[in-house]
User: Fold this.
Amino acid sequence: MHGHCGLFFTSYRAEEAVFPSPVQRVWLYAFLAVYLCLPFFLNAYLVSILDLIHIAIIAAVSLNLLTGCCGQISLGHGAFLGVGAFAAGALSAAGWPFPLDMLAGGAAAALVGLFFGLPSLRLKGIYLAIATLAAQIILEYVFLHAGALTGGSNGLLVEPASLFGYAFDTDQKFFYPSLAVAAASLLAVTNIMRSRAGRAFVAIRDYYLSAEIVGVNLFAYKLKAFAVSSFMAGMAGALWAHYLMYITPEQFNIGLSISYLAMIIIGGLGSVLGSVFGAVFITVLPEVLSAVAGAAGQLFPDVSSSLLAMKQGVFGLVLVLFLIFEPEGLVHRWRLVKAYWKLYPFAH
Assistant:
């Protein structure tokens, strides 16, 4: 039940509820009501940033399930997005409808993720990271040289997403399907983390020897984590392909994988909400840096080019600062703020 100073539970079911407090549910409904109306009031540029945030949330929460919850470090997540993107693009050209080609792209990425997840039984930590880095390099090579499926260096044109003859061919129109898939992904990962499989993932991450002793099948659950994570990454890649309507192998390089890894580190490892915070932060940061560089360029034309060149350096500096001063991510700071106001004026 909800008391005057904090939350008190009388059952595990109540404690494990996604939104245990009625106040939280009211705030959620109010946020959704406002958020759903944003495309009618924002310009196309700002809505495009929101569309990219939705896609980034799907990819980030899927990587957080694998790395943050199961402890399997992956440096090939960007390539799994590429598998989903090229598969969906090829199927869309063959006449498949948007929802089916997105699911098929996710399934193709899941199969590839299962294959490259096989070494996870024998490898852990930095060695597994190197194995997934090899997967990234191999898939980049395939994207570039499998011209019949991916278009090779020329890239691949993709039809805009459409459903029942209605094309989501503008930023405002694409806002709603991308939001729906992002919300479904967040809900799916939240429920997975509350299930037996989610508890097994956490046990493997924290005490894999103890988990194996009590009967957790390490190999099966690690493969499940790779499959589910890759499936969701493939769907994110399919959405990205339909949004951009033109994809090339260069878009799914190691830099993209590192960006998603930075999202879950900055947002908070093992946290669904942290994935959202990290996706928003990393997606908005380059736009803010570009705006600052543009404004500085008007005042100091000689330094504008230098500021643009420093964007990647600033990105790396922000990541290092988070690792030093807030290693638990933005979600930890959010929890502290919530705890303060929940117990106010007795926040001690």
About this structure: The mean pLDDT is 86.
